[in-house]
Amino acid sequence: xxxxxxxxxxxxxxxxxxxxxxxxxxxxxxxxxxxxxxxxxxxxxxxxxxxxxxxxxxxxxxxxxxxxxxxxxxxxxxxxxxxxxxxxxxxxxxxxxxxxxxxxxxxxxxxxxxxxxxxxxxxxxxxxxxxxxxxxxxxxxxxxxxxxxxxxxxxxxxxxxxxxxxxxxxxxxxxxxxxxxxxxxxxxxxxxxxxxxxxxxxxxxxxxx
Length: 209
Prior knowledge:
Blueprint: H1 5-8, H2 12-31, E1 40-43, H3 44-49, E2 57-59, E3 84-87, E4 90-93, H4 104-108, E5 113-117, E6 134-137, E7 140-143, E8 153-156, E9 168-175, E10 178-180, H5 182-188, H6 195-199
Parallel strand pairs: 1-2
Antiparallel strand pairs: 3-9, 4-5, 5-8, 6-7, 6-9, 9-10
């Protein structure tokens, strides 16, 4: 097998050369008496764009999640299937008072109402370095206050009337007419937008459904 690196940068000539070398290597090995039950080369981007690379089998990854494999790719007929969600566990008036955390004073400035959401960088590692993070609550975007804690984030819900304990919070996914994509969440965390990285950042402790 071989990884078709050219497919991730849309370099068809590199893909052609890799496939040619793979076929040459297979032929040489077979001539030497080596038998192969399966020869494969195509992962998600080349499955969609290079049918000549399908060979005996393919290796779908991000395409199974309905996500593009590189920036600018929009696979027709695909929709993201993974969402990351939690629920509000506490709501309190901020009034600009310091909140618990290493940089509490700066983080609480201007927050009139604050919701606590029990997902932090211990469960979703991309939250550790996320800058300007947002979540969806009641179909609207709300900013994460400062840096994530290990087991929770604080969200400014001053502009969202009626937020209460139990409300659904979306970190990645759709709620109403709003959507936060895996690409957006990864970009805010400084992660290159090749979605397999962003999909691997959930700890085993986070329940899957």
